[in-house]
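Table S2 (text version). Query chain:
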Amino acid sequence: MKKLFSIVLIIAFASSFSQSDEEVLKTIYHQTLTNGKSYEWLDYLSNQIGGRLSGSLNAELAVEYTKKELESLGLDKVWLQPVMVPKWVRGAKEFAYIETGPGQTTNVNICALGGSVATNPTGLKAGIVEVKSFKELEDLGKENIQGKIVFFNRPMQAVLINTFEAYGGCVNQRYAGAKIAADYGAVGVIVRSMNLRLDDFPHTGAMSYGDLPVDKRIPSAAISTNDAELLSGMLALNKDIKFFFRQNCKQLPDVQSYNVIGQITGSEYPNEIIVVGGHLDSWDLGDGAHDDGAGVVQSMDVLRLLKESGITPKRTIRVVLFMNEENGLRGGNKYAEVAKAKGENHIFALESDSGGFTPRGFSFDCSDANLNQVKQWEPLFKPYLIHYFEKGYGGADINPLKVDGIVLAGLRPDSQRYFDHHHASNDTFEHVNKRELELGAGTMTSLVYLFDKYGVNPIPNIKNIKN
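Corresponding structure-token output:
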């Protein structure tokens, strides 16, 4: 009986090595859809911890939680990588209104932009001027802007199918608007939220004053799209209306935080490293479920799904949960800095930072030769309705790893609803679909499996890593 049992084990063991790639992907998708862990992890991250702004208590709770969960998976190694991060706090809820005459006010929805200075404790009230570009600001000149609040009202272009392209077409007014307006003597900035739909949710996000001296910095806030439309309409009727807003945000000294890292060491090529990750920090208005709790838990589940599917990686597979993508990119830069100092050889990196919606495919930042290699795998993903394999951007946190020969990839889910939630108070757990999230985890795992099995050519040179 023992001999028969041994023969069965040997046959089963041998058959596991003769599985086709198609069969392995089927196993991975079966595991993620029937035995997925990502939704459970996201529930805790979102509902028990909440928004995870860099430097906050919640961010540190998220570090502790994800480290503990990775340790429970029986990985070969789990560790924390220290990184100094900025600590910006929002303070009391913002308040704003439009004033059309003495005692005639209409309240509107705003939120401070990340990194902004506060208004005076009593708030700021001034005339307001609307522009849609920096060129319009230049054309108006200092004489028409001095002492006023600048209202940047360039919407995302609805005709663009790629919503990230639409976002990229207007995000500079949020990021640099306060610096540019201050140069013309403005006393404050209001920016239309980066959102394709009309609603009452203001969307925060990072802004920068560049080299502007501290005493020249002006407060900057986002206004909801509904209220941006209202304000624009009121200005069309009366250029002399006033705008009032009050915010209490503050920039504090940097604090120490961590990237959370876990790995399965490669059985044949342990010095060739594959990274999969997302960013653990989020903005503070919602609970960061789509941005980027989804990417965090999907990346964690990649390593678990490989183990559950009986796959022994040839190369070292490493999950990295990056800290401080939202307002500094300190985690991504620190990881690449340490990798370069150690002479580590990263051959492939995959990032999920586009929400937990239905996966459509991947964008690849790589050579034409490597893209041709990837496109040979495209038919394997067609049964799962994954069809997008194109050149493009990998991701903000993995981009510092870029060297000649490495392949950087970004998971590309359906993006049509992403900016309904991006950086807003409705980026919450109930807006994530369990099945869509799990499909994303399975899709990421499948690509990691293929890169682990076949590698890349040529192997990148670690000396070329960008700081």
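Notes on Table S2: DSSP finds 15 helices and 16 strands in the chain. The domain at 20-88+253-464 is CATH 3.40.630.10 (Aminopeptidase).
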